[in-house]
Amino acid sequence: MQDAVWIVLALLQGPAPVAAAPLPLVVDPIVLPASAVSGRLTAPPGPPAPVARVSAAKPAAPRKPELVKGKAELSYVSTGGTASTQTIGTGAEAVFSPGLWRLESRGSFLRTRTDGTVRARRLTGQFKTARRIGDAAEVFARANYLRNTFAGIDNSVDGAAGVTALLIKGEPQRLALDSGFGYIGEDRTRGPGRYLATMDLGLRHQWEFTRRNRISNDASVKADVERTSDWRLSHVAALQAALNAVLALKLSHEITYRNEPVPGFTKADTVAAAAIVATF
Question: Of 279, 275, 250, 278, whose CA–CA distance to 87 is shortest?
């Protein structure tokens, strides 16, 4: 009887459930990325990294020539003791360069006073115009005025015209050779005056090793066309060093030699000066 009961209960419960084996995971490598197949997770792709662009440095543009430029300078020397002496010197220069033309104007003044009495004065003025011809030449015309009681010259006016050869041009050095003919009318404090036609030669060199720091040398020779023994030589050497954007210190030495000087005066006169220069 009990066996029959157990058989009925077993039939009512049904067969025992069979544990299902895990299904294998099939992965299609074509659909999923390689990182997912290999089991590694990667961040979703973002925007492309910026590419650094390296551009070649542009060459510095050449400095444009200034249309108008000028400068003014002042020097002063005072001594005391047995004799009180004061020497004052001033100068100014302006250059106007419209296109192929160049206009220059300059002037200087030097005075020496001893014990309250003016001993000597020197006043100079120059106006020059030049026009460029091609790349290596200029034609020029200039007029000079001179009053120099240091050398016995009461008044002197001379003019000249000629050609300038630009031997070295540009930066940092410039070298020019002037040649031409002129005329001098000279009144002297002693003896008769001189009125003569001249042959003029000049050599000008400038080395501007940095802006507003330069060395310059200007030399010129004037000779009488008829009497070659009457000739004059002048040379000015100058060194300029910048102090700031406007001011500079200038040291200069000038020598003037006259082979036939005014009676009672020496052949050579020299001027050494230190001045403060303002450039604009």
Answer: 275
